[in-house]
């Protein structure tokens, strides 16, 4: 009995290791795997500090605009969020027949409304998937949940910038397809990170936020 239990534990351990190694970043039908190598986009600590300092003039202007209330210093999402979000985008884009090429980040701010709650007025960011358009050679913002009847992605960038009721009509893309009603429209765009301000934890060894 003890031998069988030990064997079951060993088998369970192997399965758990497999799930951890491949489960989060895999999507059924997707063959690509992260190499685990250091990305070329990483920067030095010195460069990170220089960029933070370069931002401070803008931060001060925004703080003055907000009548002395400091704006957000940073935002946070869990690693699990990124793993799940990328897996979700790959699955949704595959269903739509369009391969996601990357993620575009828009710098935005929470409106002064009840939905924003304690975050109202703070800057934040939203994540929007992109696909590669061979004709233009550009990575275009799109939403795998909103594809026209002709298979062409609806103009998500235009919707974000101009609003869904004022989006430019394009061939095969009707305004009705983008906005079936005045109600909020489901999308694959992500936000809802933990923002500092107003929720700034005390950093170890730091005298400020």
Task: Describe this protein's structure.
This protein is α+β, with helices and mostly antiparallel strands. It has five helices and five strands, in the order H-H-E-H-E-E-E-H-H-E. The strands form two sheets. Strands 2-3-4 form a three-stranded antiparallel β-sheet, with no helix packed on it. A two-stranded antiparallel ribbon has the order 1-5. Strand 3 and strand 4 form a beta hairpin. The longest helix has 22 residues. The relative contact order is 0.11. The N terminus is likely disordered.
Short description:
This protein is α+β, with helices and mostly antiparallel strands and 209 residues long.
- The stretches of 5 or more residues where confidence is low (pLDDT under 50) are 1-31, 166-173
N-to-C terminal Cα separation, in Å?
57 Å
Helix tally?
5
Global structural class:
alpha+beta
The ordered H/E elements are: HHEHEEEHHE
Fraction of residues in helix: 25-40%
Using only C-alpha atoms, the radius of gyration works out to 22 Å
**Largest sheet, order of strands side by side?**
2-3-4
Strand content bin: 5-15%
Q: Overall mean pLDDT score?
A: 78
Outline: globular
Largest sheet: 3 strands, antiparallel
- The number of E-state strands comes to 5
């Amino acid at each position: 009995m003890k031998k069988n239990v030990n064997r079951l534990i060993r088998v369970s351990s192997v399965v758990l290791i497999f799930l951890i190694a491949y489960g989060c970043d895999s999507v059924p039908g997707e063959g690509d795997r992260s190499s685990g190598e250091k990305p070329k986009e990483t920067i030095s600590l010195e460069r990170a500090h220089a960029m933070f300092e370069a931002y401070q003039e803008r931060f001060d202007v925004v703080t003055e605009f907000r009548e002395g209330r400091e704006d957000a210093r940073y935002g946070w999402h869990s690693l699990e969020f990124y793993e799940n979000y990328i897996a979700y985008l790959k699955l949704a884009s595959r269903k739509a027949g369009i391969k996601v090429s990357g993620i575009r980040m828009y710098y935005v701010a929470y409106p002064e409304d009840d939905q924003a709650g304690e975050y109202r007025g703070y800057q934040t960011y939203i994540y929007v998937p992109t696909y590669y358009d061979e004709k233009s050679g550009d990575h275009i913002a799109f939403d795998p949940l909103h594809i026209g009847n002709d298979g062409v992605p609806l103009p998500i960038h235009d919707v974000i910038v101009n609003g869904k009721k004022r989006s430019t009509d394009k061939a095969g893309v009707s305004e009705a397809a983008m906005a079936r009603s005045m109600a909020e429209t489901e999308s694959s765009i992500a936000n809802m990170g933990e923002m500092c301000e107003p929720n700034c934890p005390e950093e170890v060894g730091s005298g400020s936020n």
